[in-house]
């Protein structure tokens, strides 16, 4: 298993992002939220993921960028939890939704719990 976050896994398609927000289902583990939808595009990758941090909670771009980096890193190290349980291509949006500034270790624990919760929903 490669612990990478290559370009082809990054969610950039505006139509897919719109689909996520209109028809997507979500799983939460405070302060994280994962919105997902089955990707129906032809030749779609097994997984596409985007990361977002609310401007409402973190006014400074420096702070938002820090948490986006942390979310991408926790995804990169734990994506095997998602990939091992997916049969069809999916698109994901990964959110940090709190004013609270959790440490990297706490965010990683929550990410693992969130991915496990997603896997339970898929069964």
UniProtKB/TrEMBL annotation:
<keyword id="KW-0540">Nuclease</keyword>
<comment type="similarity">
    <text>Belongs to the RnpA family.</text>
</comment>
<dbReference type="GO" id="GO:0000049">
    <property type="term" value="F:tRNA binding"/>
</dbReference>
<dbReference type="InterPro" id="IPR020539">
    <property type="entry name" value="RNase_P_CS"/>
</dbReference>
<keyword id="KW-0819">tRNA processing</keyword>
<comment type="function">
    <text>RNaseP catalyzes the removal of the 5'-leader sequence from pre-tRNA to produce the mature 5'-terminus. It can also cleave other RNA substrates such as 4.5S RNA. The protein component plays an auxiliary but essential role in vivo by binding to the 5'-leader sequence and broadening the substrate specificity of the ribozyme.</text>
</comment>
<dbReference type="GO" id="GO:0042781">
    <property type="term" value="F:3'-tRNA processing endoribonuclease activity"/>
</dbReference>
<dbReference type="GO" id="GO:0001682">
    <property type="term" value="P:tRNA 5'-leader removal"/>
</dbReference>
<dbReference type="GO" id="GO:0004526">
    <property type="term" value="F:ribonuclease P activity"/>
</dbReference>
<dbReference type="GO" id="GO:0030677">
    <property type="term" value="C:ribonuclease P complex"/>
</dbReference>
<protein>
    <recommendedName>
        <fullName>Ribonuclease P protein component</fullName>
        <ecNumber>3.1.26.5</ecNumber>
    </recommendedName>
</protein>
<keyword id="KW-0255">Endonuclease</keyword>
<keyword id="KW-0378">Hydrolase</keyword>
<dbReference type="Pfam" id="PF00825">
    <property type="entry name" value="Ribonuclease_P"/>
</dbReference>
<comment type="subunit">
    <text>Consists of a catalytic RNA component (M1 or rnpB) and a protein subunit.</text>
</comment>
<dbReference type="InterPro" id="IPR014721">
    <property type="entry name" value="Ribsml_uS5_D2-typ_fold_subgr"/>
</dbReference>
<dbReference type="InterPro" id="IPR000100">
    <property type="entry name" value="RNase_P"/>
</dbReference>
<keyword id="KW-0694">RNA-binding</keyword>
<dbReference type="InterPro" id="IPR020568">
    <property type="entry name" value="Ribosomal_Su5_D2-typ_SF"/>
</dbReference>
């Amino acid at each position: 298993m490669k612990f990478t976050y290559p370009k082809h896994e990054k969610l950039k398609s505006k139509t897919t992002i719109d689909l996520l927000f209109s028809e997507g289902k979500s799983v939460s583990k405070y302060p994280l939220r994962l919105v997902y939808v089955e990707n129906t595009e032809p030749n779609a990758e097994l997984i596409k993921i985007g990361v977002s941090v609310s401007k409402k909670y973190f006014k400074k771009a420096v702070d938002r960028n820090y948490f986006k980096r942390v979310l991408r890193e926790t995804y990169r190290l734990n994506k095997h939890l998602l990939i091992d349980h997916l049969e069809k291509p999916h698109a994901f949006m990964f959110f940090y939704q709190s004013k609270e500034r959790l440490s990297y270790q706490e965010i990683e624990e929550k990410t693992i719990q969130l991915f496990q919760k997603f896997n339970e929903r898929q069964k």
